[in-house]
Amino acid sequence: MENIENKTELTPKQIVEKLDGYIIGQEKAKRAVAVALRNRFRRLKLPEEIRDEVAPKNILMIGPTGCGKTEIARRLAKLCGAPFLKVEATKYTEVGYVGRDVESMIRDLMAVGYNDVKAEMEDQLREKSVSVVEERLLDLLLPGTGKGDKKKADGEGDKSEVKPLGFLSQPSANEITIDLNKVAADMQSALNAANQAAAEQQKADEESAEKAVENHTREKFRQMLREGKLEDREVDMVVHRPQGMPNMEIIAGGSIDDLQNSMQGILNMMNGQGRGKKRSVTVKEARKILTEEVLDNMVDHDKVADEAKKRVEQSGIIFIDEIDKIAVHGESHGQDVSREGVQRDILPIVEGSNVNTKFGVIDTTHILFIAAGAFSVAAPSDLIPELQGRFPLRVELDSLHKEDFKRILSEPKNSLIMQYTSLLETEGVKLDITEDALDRMSVVAEEVNSSAENIGARRLHTIMEKVLADINFEADEHAGETIKIDAAYVDSKLEGISQNQDLSRYIL
């Protein structure tokens, strides 16, 4: 839980600084998202009577494709310790149509929250699980050992009274003759009892010796296991693939996907799947499988669900991408009617409503919604007025220019230059990409975006692939070499294509 608390202490400036490591420009959008995220944590510190009155200020990000809207969402997901879900508005349909209903986004968010909390609790229990997993691994390596001696200990056995020999007992006054046959029988019985006792003692001694050998062998294997000497040894084990109970969300208004998943779960149960399948795996794989099983048994699933529900309701964030695709431009007809229906279905969720999930009823009142769209055809005003009102903060993202493209190529921690050079280094090929090569690729990206479709930074992926196509294909032939990529090399690969607008429209 400590890492979550550290994330909640990030100030808006710190959030923007972390986003700057991956996203070039778009300061207004980053600041708006940073403040919104910080307000989530500020609200949790308010007195309870005030906290419920503070509604989230949902954000609508407007900008052309490839300018960083989705990347902001992806990086925000890694920054915040709150449950986060990115969805696409086009994947949902109006209630009554075939497809996913909008309430499924809340169910998906709850599943994310549940998995996050479960992972945290498993991390806390991981140290305790090590010894349990070790014992189970030893049971697999040495079947039949370590399970305890279930038989009675020495001296604990038949406690029935041993009758004295008849001829040694004091005869009564009335006994005048001795039955020789009875004496012989009693002596044989005594001899049999002595032989049985000796055999049992010998068996106990053998079992004790065998147990000592087993214990010695088990401890020897334990030491080898801890030293990592048995990682590649194969063992046979039953691998369980629990399918869980059928998802009963279909009763609570689930979608066709929920129905299909539920039916598949029922079929799996009927076919016996989930009972386990015997497999031959390495000790390394077995440790991973056993650790998951042990941790799953150790976790309190009710406690996980309660904590996840609390987090989702109080600090959950949903990023709705491509919301412009469900806007209705001009008169509504045909498919546009369904789009309006999706907007109407989204509205109560954004405003605040109760949604049934398999973990309980979720109140969406304080979930933060961030919507984004290019709005190249439709405008934000084409959304239904009620939905517009639920996104009071609007941020316009800027189109990218050659200076931005150059920075995107080299500055971010996950820059394209870093990605391509790292990939080729695995083949022993080093790339020396000069400054003028970066300038040239940035200029081409801006020119093609302005003359063809503007796809923003995604244009750089296409250009880099085209420039390095031959090197990527012949990398094995250049092992150990350093290849220089300068402006002349870029021109040799792109000049004819970039000058031909019709060709660049399809190739770049």
Automatic annotation (TrEMBL):
PANTHER family assigned: ATP-DEPENDENT CLP PROTEASE ATP-BINDING SUBUNIT CLPX-LIKE, MITOCHONDRIAL-RELATED, ATP-DEPENDENT PROTEASE ATPASE SUBUNIT HSLU
Residue ranges of coiled coil: 184-219
Keyword ATP-binding found: yes
Oligomer and partners: A double ring-shaped homohexamer of HslV is capped on each side by a ring-shaped HslU homohexamer. The assembly of the HslU/HslV complex is dependent on binding of ATP.
Gene Ontology MF annotations: ATP binding; ATP hydrolysis activity; peptidase activity; proteasome-activating activity
A GO cellular component entry from the record: HslUV protease complex
Bias (Basic and acidic residues) ranges: 147-162
Residue ranges of domain AAA+ ATPase in the record: 55-397
Protein name: ATP-dependent protease ATPase subunit HslU
Organism of this sequence: Treponema bryantii
Region annotated Disordered, chain positions: 144-166
Source organism phylogeny: Bacteria, Pseudomonadati, Spirochaetota, Spirochaetia, Spirochaetales
Family according to the record: Belongs to the ClpX chaperone family. HslU subfamily.
Function, as annotated: ATPase subunit of a proteasome-like degradation complex; this subunit has chaperone activity. The binding of ATP and its subsequent hydrolysis by HslU are essential for unfolding of protein substrates subsequently hydrolyzed by HslV. HslU recognizes the N-terminal part of its protein substrates and unfolds these before they are guided to HslV for hydrolysis.
Cellular localisation: Cytoplasm
Keyword ATP-binding: yes
